[in-house]
Specification:
alpha+beta, single chain, elongated, 3 helices, 18% strand, 99 residues, three-stranded antiparallel β-sheet
Length: 99
């Protein structure tokens, strides 16, 4: 049986139909995280949860964060991993942190 004969079937859990090659793309190694909280300290505390998770995936990650004022309510961080698969693993694991 060849691959051309197969039809894509939707995942029963999430309804998505795709090949892994379309999900994991070369060079797609930066995850963007948006955190919402009241104040700089609360935002940084929430960000630390994401950074701890990123470290579990690969300790060699890099990150940058938007400038925060004391009364900020949103933080945007970009976390770069060494490969696309690590980014995907991080994004899947970080779903438990999203509120």
């Amino acid at each position: 049986m060849s691959n051309e004969d197969l039809e894509y079937q939707a995942c029963e859990a999430c309804g998505v139909s795709a090949e892994m090659g379309f999900i994991i793309k070369e060079g797609d190694d930066v995850a963007e995280v948006r955190v919402y909280a009241n104040g700089k300290d609360a935002l940084e505390a929430e960000l630390n949860n994401y950074l701890a998770l990123a470290k579990e995936v690969n300790a060699n990650f890099k990150h940058e964060v938007t400038h925060l004022a004391e009364d900020s309510q949103e933080l945007v961080a970009r976390i770069q991993f060494e490969c696309s698969a690590e980014k995907l693993i991080f994004e899947l694991k970080s779903r438990s942190l999203a509120k």
